[in-house]
């Protein structure tokens, strides 16, 4: 029996198709061996792990099952089936999906969203975290057989995405690429939208590339807003740029994002760049997230942009100071040398981590200490626009995170180009548990 298929397109060209058997196994098949892969976990030639194709798709959807149910309801679907939710949707990266062998097409004409509607959507998402997908049940597009609004965005934090075209806001779909992501304040983390804005500003001041960001105010409602780095806007034309997060690249499903270790990330990158310059650049980003008090910096918070012959790091995103809110887990998502709390980290721990990862310990410790110094030096400037109480909470959280790192207060050296080439041979085996023991990620010959 012919299995279910989900066709994949990039820049209007058919790339291949995901296939699902009656038993539920998902695989991906390319039309050609030439060109960039859609994922490092799904190479054009050679093998991929058995779950890589399914994991790649799952990482494009919200983590929250309630958010997926909301999507299905708004699309008049009878289930939260992954193939159905992604078909015809605007998704992260440069791919478009269709359950038919024709490129999805939706009318470009769409009713612009006014300030009141955007303000209402901010309020809906803040009040009811799973309501990412639309306005209320009486809105205009809900009554259509084919809703104009059709997007999917990954992660656990409530958010939504919009398209900016010809000076107006539109709901996105497969034919209308979104250009911005909007994150309302989280109810249990007061001021989260402003803290994220300040954290990205801090990253910029520390010499890191970050996504363009700010605070959106609509009809009296506030939210964090960021311009998508996986879109290029040229006048009224928007082009999707293909990227993926490290969970996708390593073939990990979203439920396993906290199982991705720092040393595994470095070893994974080493396979594509034996010089390890890409690995050192990633360490700079990791060091910033540690020193800025972001305990939730997991594998899906780092992305790469794929091109014909290799990849580079995407700008940083999803940066915040989680240590501000005591009820949020204080342990780092990626422990360093087994140390789970940032304030306990010493230069020795960074050196030991480097040795485990195959990097130079002295260089890695210098990166971590210099980044800590930069974070502390620029903290007041980055947080200047926050309300007094929030600014003080951010200052305390960041200062605590750097208690034992022995910061170096000096100008940071300019990083080398962070590009890597695709290399052939082998299959990446993701970190896993075997016979009750943790096994780090490693490359296995075909």
Main sheet properties: 5 strands, antiparallel
CATH class of the largest domain: Mainly Alpha
CATH-defined fold name of the largest domain: Phosphatidylinositol 3-kinase Catalytic Subunit, Chain A, Domain 5
Euclidean distance between termini CA atoms: 29 Å
Number of helices: 11
Tell the overall outline.
globular
- The share of residues in helices is 25-40%
Return residue spans where pLDDT drops below 50 for at least 5 consecutive residues. 136-146
Average pLDDT reading: 88
Strand content: 15-25%
How are helices and strands ordered from N to C?
Answer: EEEHHHEHEEEHEEEEEHHHEEHHHEEEEE
Domain tally: 3
Count every beta strand, where a strand is a DSSP E run of 2 or more residues: 19
Radius of gyration: 22 Å
The CATH architecture designation of the largest domain is Orthogonal Bundle
Name the strands of the widest sheet in spatial order: 6-5-7-9-8
Secondary structural class = alpha+beta
Highlighted features:
446 residues; alpha+beta; Phosphatidylinositol 3-kinase Catalytic Subunit, Chain A, Domain 5; 5-stranded antiparallel β-sheet; 4-stranded antiparallel β-sheet; 11 helices; 28% helix; globular; HipA_Ser/Thr_kinase
Task: Tell me about this structure.
With 446 residues, the chain is of the alpha+beta class. The chain has three domains: 4-98, no CATH class; 115-239, no CATH class; 245-421, Phosphatidylinositol 3-kinase Catalytic Subunit, Chain A, Domain 5 (Orthogonal Bundle). It contains eleven helices and 19 strands. The strands form six sheets. Strands 6-5-7-9-8 form a five-stranded antiparallel beta sheet. The chain has a four-stranded antiparallel beta sheet with strand order 3-2-1-4, covered by helices on one side. It has a four-stranded antiparallel beta sheet with strand order 12-13-14-15. Strand 8 and strand 9 (221-227) form a beta hairpin. The chain starts with a strand and ends with a strand. Belongs to the HipA Ser/Thr kinase family. It is an enzyme of class 2 (transferase). It comes from Bifidobacterium longum subsp. infantis. This is Serine/threonine-protein kinase HipA. Keywords: Kinase, Transferase.
